[in-house]
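During the no-cost extension, the postdoctoral fellow (Dr. R.K.) reprocessed legacy sequence entries with the updated structure-token encoder. One reprocessed record is reproduced below for audit purposes.
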Amino acid sequence: MAYVLKIRARYRSDATGREVLLPAVFTESGLVLSHLRYLAAHLGRSQAWRSKSVAALIRLIKYINANVEYYNSATELLRGFQAALNGGSFNQTTLEDPSGLYWRPLTAENASSVLWYITHYTDWLSRQSAYSSIRINGFRKATSTEARLNWCAYYNKERHVFLNYLNSYGRVSEEVWRVRDVKADERLVGLINSAVRFPESKIDDLMRIGFVRRDNRGASVFNEERPDYKGQAITMLMHYGGVRRSEALQLYLQDVMVDKVRGEALVRVYHPSLGRSPDEAYSTRGEYLAIRFRLKPRNQYLVTERLHLGWKRPLLTNSREGYFAVSFFPPEKAVEFLSVFTNYLKFQRVSPPEYENHPYAFTNCYGAPETAKNFSRLHKAAVERLELKHCKQLGTTEHGHRHAYGYRLSEYGFTPLEIKVAMHHRAISSQQVYTQKSDEDVRKYMRSSYERNH
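Re-encoded structure tokens follow.
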């Protein structure tokens, strides 16, 4: 019986002790080794990227298993796959689905994303020297998952059947006549989504009333003597420093320093594995974590593992040492952050047990490194204490603070290039989503402009 599962696999490419834990696709024919090798060839990509690639391949294999008897070629099947992504797999009148997939229609953006991941994989597969030797039978007669995927790669190479997204702009003239047979549906065209940011009018209340500690009876204590310094410090890094949640949680204790002249915090966010080690005995943080603590950089854990944190490849301030410096705005928030962080270290930080030691600044109640999931829970509770809804569309999730930071820089007259540098973007266009006016902003400007002229 045909089936497909997502599992975890330890991958080694040579006889050394080096290995990497990767998500993998397992079928009745065994591991899809070509995809495992493909992921291993792209170790610089994020864990989220790998998970999405696996999910896309699983979708394709499920469709092949359910429909292979209905198609004689990979091209025909891939057209059907694209149609099922965009339109769903069931009859919209009877709601019946003989294939058993019962897929709901994806948005044009999500369908394009699935096809992009399949394209990237099959383009890579078609370039491998051994891929043609596995293609021993016709697509319909092929009995193994690997053989059918190699047929997909063959048609991808010969007919360009997937999305033609991978060509650079410099190759447009060469590729103008090479059009993919299978394309995603038309996407909706519009402006960049407006910045959904945390409301500035609520940030002080969030710090003072939202982030509070609980006593032994579980009742919240709403006074200045029992603030949650950890929640305040992480949120200040996001709201006034533009730092992502994952970047804040990867800080070491040594990454927060003191400018003794100004009396403010100097915060550096290092690359999780390639950044300079705080101990000169080790060249990188990856080596430091492995030898001193038997840990991996947190962006190398699988998405399903507790210690996993993402890494968005920000533009680094110092590429030699592998870090970027946090720029607080307004500047006085660097002084305020130092006070909050100092109080956290003095009164609330739980040191890790000796047998589970680690260098991370923010810990949970057991001394283990704080996780993204737990901080999200704390942030949600803090927001709801203000009787606000914790919702991405309202800007009240953690990422809304980074949006508020970018928008604040724009409101104070920073240029797009200056905002790019402050937010550590690689491309100047990346800051547009943070600085674009919302519909409400435009309406307010219209009202004030009308009132000034009447």
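The first strand starts at residue 4 and ends at 11. The first helix runs from residue 33 to 40. The remaining legacy entries will be reprocessed before the final report is submitted.
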